[in-house]
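Worked example 3. Consider a protein that binds flavin-adenine dinucleotide.
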Amino acid sequence: MIDLLVAGGGPAGAATAIRAALAGLEVIVVEPREVPQDKACGEGIAGSAVDYLQRLGVSPAGRPFHGIRYLDAGHCVDARFRVGPGLGVRRTTLQESLHNRLASLGVPVLRDRVSVITQDLTSVTAAGITARYLAAADGLHSPIRRSLGLTGQPHLGALRSLGPLARLGPAAGEARSRIGLPTPAAVEVRRGLRRHYSVAPWSELVEVYWSPLGEAYVTPVADDLVGVAVLTSERGSFDSHLAAFPALQRRLAGAVPAGTVLGAGPLRQRVRGRVAGRVLLVGDAAGYVDALTGEGIAVALRTSAELVRCVERDDPAAYEAAWRRVSWECRFLTGSLLWARNRSLLAPRIVPAAAALPGVFAAIVNRLG
Ligand SMILES: Cc1cc2nc3c(=O)[nH]c(=O)nc-3n(C[C@H](O)[C@H](O)[C@H](O)COP(=O)(O)OP(=O)(O)OC[C@H]3O[C@@H](n4cnc5c(N)ncnc54)[C@H](O)[C@@H]3O)c2cc1C
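Given these inputs, the predicted complex is written out as C-alpha cells:
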C-alpha cells in the first residue's frame, strides 16, 4: 500500500504529489489526459505562489508582471506589488515544469482515470491502486467530488467566511428580484474564455478591462505573447465578447490570434466539505468562487501543502479546517468583489472607486498577491 494516490495531474494534483514526495511519502498520480494539456486560464501566478513553486523545485519560464491595472471606459488605476512580481506562464509550460519535477523525483504518473472508489478504516482503493489516502485534484467539475456527494451548498458555518453573496441563500432570490437585484441564477453562472495573441506585451502589469459584459484580463506570458481571458455570464463567441472592450480591441488590432479559444465554466462550484473518509479534495475540486482575482493556482498550492501535512500526521479530519484557514481570505475578497460586480448599481462604480482610493486598491491587490 502506498501513502498517497493523487487523482489529477493539473497544478493542484502535481503540486500535491511533489510536496508529498519531498516529505518522503510514497505517491502515485493518475491522470487520464496526455501532459502537458492546455486549459482556459488567465495564466497569471501570484508572487507567493511563484516562491512556493521554487521551493518545490519548479521554475517555469514566463514573463514577470509587477501589479494589476483596472480600466473602464473613463478610468485607469494601477496597483503595484510591494514584494516580488507575479509570473505570467503559459499553462502548458507550467504543466511541463511540474511534470518534469515529478519525473525527477521518481513519482509515477499513470495514464488512467479514477472512477470507482472503495475505502475502509485504513485504506482507499481506486484505479487498481490501494493507498492510505486519496487526493482528489480532478478539477472544477470534479467527478470524484460528485460521486462522494460533496457537491452542493455548504452548511451555514462554512458560508460565513465566503463573503456577503454566498450568505444569501435561495430564499433571498425572490426578494432580490423584487428589488431589481440579480437573482442567484443570474449572478452565478459565469464562464471564462481564453485566447492568446502574438504581440509584444504593452504593459508590465496584468490589465483587467471592465465593461457591463464582464471583465477581460490581459496577462503577458512571453516576450511575444499575451493571453486574454474574458469572464462573463453572457453567452457568445470570444470575438463578440471582445467587442464589449473597445480599448482592448484597439490594443489588439493587427495582433495575430495564436491557438484556439478555450473555455471553462460554470466557474462557481459549491462544495459541502473537503473530506470524505480517506479522500481529500484539493484545487478547483475543493470548491471555486470565481477567476475574478486570478488566485486559483495560489490557493491550490497553499491547500495542497495542508493536505500533505494532514496525510503525514494521519489526521484527515484536520484538513477541512486547514483548507478554510488558508483559503478564507482569497474566498472572502473574491466573493465580495463578485458580489459587488453582480449588483447593477455597484458594478459601474468598482473601477472609479479603485481610482479614487488607490491606496485601498493597492492594499487589496497586495493582500491577494
Ligand atoms: C478563465 C479562467 C481564468 C483563470 N485565471 C487564473 C489566473 O490568472 N491565475 C490563477 O492562479 N488561476 C486562474 N484560474 C484558475 C486556475 O486555472 C485553476 O484554479 C487551476 O487550473 C486549478 O488546477 P486544478 O489542478 O485544481 O484543476 P485542473 O487544472 O482542471 O486539473 C484537473 C486534472 O484532473 C484530471 N482529471 C479529471 N477527472 C479525473 C479523474 N476522474 N481521475 C483522474 N484525473 C482526472 C484532468 O484531466 C486534469 O488534468 C482561471 C480559471 C479560469 C476558468
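Take a moment to read the result before moving on. The two ends are 39 Å apart (CA to CA). Residues 161-186 have pLDDT under 50 and may be disordered.
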